[in-house]
Specification:
Low-confidence stretches: none
Radius of gyration: 20 Å
Number of helices: 5
Shape: globular
Helix content: 25-40%
Structural class: alpha+beta
Strand content: 25-35%
Oligomer: single chain
Order of helices and strands: HHEEEHHEEH
Length: 163
């Protein structure tokens, strides 16, 4: 059995620990941006008369950021929250502007959301209720005032309901 000095995995682990301590960007932030975005989205949706049923609803497939009941009192809404920090003037200084947060919901994430929604519907007994998947995009600037965009029905449910 080799000691820590000759074990490459142990050496790499030790180097990473040293780097983490020396480089602030590798340290974990005290409050993750995603959690902050979910709280902002929740407050926004409550003001829009949505009732939040669950936060970070876990299934065997994955997780839904928020599960709400729409203002109609009947529709179940699975909400995917995407949050980005954008510095003013960043887009002007680069050759290409940064994509908006909602652009992160691509084909893979869409498939995953459909599977999570299907699992939630079955496990919660919501088969007879209307269902949709929304995306809430949040951009936070240095001024700390978020820009919120609510994309209602952003993920099409046809694939889910046809099973």
């Amino acid at each position: 059995m080799s000691n820590d000095r000759t074990n490459p995995v142990a050496r790499l682990r030790a180097m990473l620990l040293v780097l983490r301590d020396r480089l602030p960007s590798l340290r974990r932030a005290p409050a993750p941006l995603g959690s902050r975005g979910e709280r902002i989205a929740e407050k926004f949706l409550r003001k829009s008369r949505y009732r939040v049923l669950e936060r970070n609803a876990r299934t065997r497939i994955g997780e839904a950021d928020l599960v709400c009941e729409a203002p109609d009192g009947r529709t179940i809404v699975i909400v995917e929250v995407k949050t980005r920090i954008t510095a003013p003037g960043t887009a002007a200084s680069s050759s290409r502007p940064a994509p908006p947060p909602e652009a992160a919901v691509g084909a893979h994430k869409t498939r995953k959301l459909l599977l999570v929604a299907d699992d939630l519907v079955r496990r919660r007994g919501w088969a007879n209720r209307p269902l949709r998947i929304d995306v809430v995009a949040i951009e936070v600037t240095d001024s700390m005032t978020p820009t919120i965009r609510h994309h209602i029905g952003a993920v099409r449910m046809a694939t889910l309901r046809s099973r």
